[in-house]
From TrEMBL:
The keyword Cytoplasm does not apply. Signal peptide: none annotated. It is found in: Membrane. It holds the Pfam family Band_7. GO terms for molecular function: peptidase activity. Residues 1-38, 347-375 are annotated as: Disordered. HflC and HflK may interact to form a multimeric complex. It comes from Chelativorans intermedius. HflC and HflK could encode or regulate a protease. The chain crosses the membrane at residues 52-77. Belongs to the band 7/mec-2 family. HflK subfamily. This is Protein HflK. Residues 358-369 have a biased composition (Low complexity).
Amino acid sequence: MPWNNQSGGGPWGSGNSGGPWDQGPRGPSGPQGTPPDLEEIIRRGQDRLRRALPGGGGPSPAILGLVVLALLGLWLFKAVYTVQPDELAVELRFGKPKPELSEPGLHFHWWPVETVEKTSVAERLMDIGEVRSGGSSGLMLSGDQNIVDVKFSVAYQVADPIAYLFNVDDPDGTLRQVSESAMREVVGRRPAQDVFRDDRQGIAEDVRAIIQSTLEEYGAGLAINALSIEDAAPPREVADAFDEVQRAEQDEDRFVEEANQYANQQLGQARGEAAQIREAAAAYKNRIVQEAEGEAQRFISVYEEYAKAPDVTRKRLFLETMEEVLRGSNKVIVGQGGGQGVIPYLPLPELRGSPQRSSAPGSALQSGQAQGGNN
């Protein structure tokens, strides 16, 4: 419903009643209800500021000096920086890195035109393959289609601070991803037995070489000092089966070792016996050869003597031979006359062996021997 000043006085009532609360809206104060001047407000603020400042708000050399000293201190605080013993710093001029590196110590740069980025060059150790939520990042597939859980650590340090700070967004994260990828690549080409115990050192060297070459291609500025496989085991679900296989393989190795030991023992004994037989045969050969040479030499010497005096030598040989033949035999010598009382067919050896015979046969025997001896 329209209203006017005559009847209702607007929504706040009429005249001086002031509307429903007996008070109309108050306009800005000022002469004759006009709004205040903006310049007047600024002037009043300046007057208050002058009254608050010492010296009536005029320029003071002391205040200006304090302000300058404060600004100079802030600039020196920003311009001077310290590099710790295990750090290197790179200065940037308008965001572009300088080729020079700042060694440990106190340095100066023109801030804010130049800024500084620092990084630690000490050796760091990154463990890879730890158990995470939802599984283990160390589970890998080996070359013989077995699953192994590999945990290894990488020792590295910053070799090029400029490349480390500005070439790669997240060098440490990149190193972790590259390390996991390289380990999976090498393990995927090897049987599980190599990862468990046979060739851990060879696998670690291959992985380290792959990581280093990949980081150099990326320009990450990192150097891999060492890589070691901390633990390699089958998954927990099949750990018992793998342990059984390991025990069987250990038993197999033990049996093979025992067989080799027995074979070596028997072979050594056989070689010793063979050497002993060869030595005995060589000794026998030498002895026979020496005896044969001696006999031949003796025969030659006898022949030479025989050639000088055949009759004497023949008789001497005959006598020596008969002496050798008759030396150990029982014999009775009878003279050519036969002897007195000796019967030709009498068992003379028995008579000779009987000491209790009568003196007659004995005397006849003795006489026969004497006759034979005389003849």
